[in-house]
Amino acid sequence: MTDQPQPLLRKIIHIDMDAFYASVEQRDFPEYRGKPLVVGGKPDSRGVVATASYEARQFGIRSAMSCNKAYQLCPTAIFVYPRFDAYSAVSKSIREIFSRYTDLIEPLSLDEAYLDVTEDKLGIGSAMDIAKSIKDAIKNELNLTASAGVSINKFVAKVASDMNKPDGLTFIGPSKIEAFMEKLPVEKFFGVGKVTAAKMKAMQITTGADLKKLTEVQLLAQFGKSGKFYYQIVRGVDNRPVQPHRETKSVGAEDTLAEDTNDDAVMHDLLKQISETVAKRLEKYGLKGKTVTLKIKFSDFKLITRSRSFSNAIDAAEVMYAEAIKLLNEAEIGNAKVRLLGITLSRFYDDVLPEKIQDNQLEFDF
């Protein structure tokens, strides 16, 4: 064991619905059951897979894959557009089930959340028993399945929930956390994306055990502020509390073009549609922001962003649209062809933003 501060002995549950959008579709439409189902758009579209049923995943179909690629992998799959209103309604019902046990609920999205049950409303005591009770309620009342991870902190609970999907229930206790973290591949670490994982592997860091060999100073030098988080988490230390009232940090939307293009008129038309979608979402949440960010993904999947901040908060579609056009022009993409465009509005509050791992971003394809 190390001399690092020991984790706070909370009882944390991470609940993650199984193939949520696809499962809701299969529940509501019997003709989809037992069949490969892709939620995201038409097979010949440029859209992306939002969720695939487990039957579809057997063919290698995954979230964020293009619908066209998904169709190539499984031509017999059923393709449907997302019904976000239906998913949102189910999510509210799931949240109601959570609230029977605790008020310390931190939603991460429509289909997953952290729960702190250190002190539970019903006096059950055992976090495993509570997680099983929640899973049973979701199955019996909503005819859906969820996977749960149970541990003493958020990071380990989240990893645990993904270990035995679907319909899994996994507990990783205090005495097993460090050994578990040492065996964990770096790409499984929450907050480690593809770029960071590639950088780590180039440094011969492939597991938590490799990461643990570096000092905190070395990790800070290589990965900035995230280095401190990596240093602590590989030792099982994650003192982040469950935050039941997290502030939304950004609202955005993005869409894939019908075909790769560098035609200004086509891109401007899409940006107009996206800005209107973002404005509607801002109105729904009653938010105004000071920073507009333009997202550009090229035909070779290279991704860039450009941002500009205002002195006063905005929410109007026409203002976001005009600013997105300016940012697009300033990007000087030349003859490069664009695959996807997105607009995000942020800085709703004047306080200092938390680190990226604590952001709560509302952003969807449409």
TrEMBL record:
Enzyme class: transferase
UniProt site (Substrate discrimination): Y21
The organism's place on the tree of life at top rank: Bacteria
NCBIfam families cross-referenced by the UniProt entry: PRK02406.1 (NF002677)
Family statement drawn from the similarity comment of this UniProt entry: Belongs to the DNA polymerase type-Y family.
Gene Ontology BP annotations: DNA repair; DNA-templated DNA replication; error-prone translesion synthesis; SOS response
Entry protein name: DNA polymerase IV
Keyword DNA-binding: yes
Active site: residue positions: E112
Biological role: Poorly processive, error-prone DNA polymerase involved in untargeted mutagenesis. Copies undamaged DNA at stalled replication forks, which arise in vivo from mismatched or misaligned primer ends. These misaligned primers can be extended by PolIV. Exhibits no 3'-5' exonuclease (proofreading) activity. May be involved in translesional synthesis, in conjunction with the beta clamp from PolIII.
Entry keyword set: Cytoplasm, DNA damage, DNA repair, DNA replication, DNA-binding, DNA-directed DNA polymerase, Magnesium, Metal-binding, Mutator protein, Nucleotidyltransferase, Transferase
PROSITE patterns listed in its UniProt record: UMUC
GO cellular component terms attached to this protein's record: cytosol
HAMAP family the record matches: DNApol_IV
InterPro entries in the record: DNA/RNA_pol_sf, DNA_pol_Y-fam_lit_finger_sf, DNA_pol_Y-fam_little_finger, DNA_polymerase-Y, DNApol_IV, IMS_HHH_1, Rev_trsase/Diguanyl_cyclase, UmuC
Cofactor note as given: Binds 2 magnesium ions per subunit.
PANTHER family in alphabetical order: DNA POLYMERASE KAPPA (PTHR11076:SF33), DNA REPAIR POLYMERASE UMUC / TRANSFERASE FAMILY MEMBER (PTHR11076)
Cofactors demanded by this protein: Mg(2+)
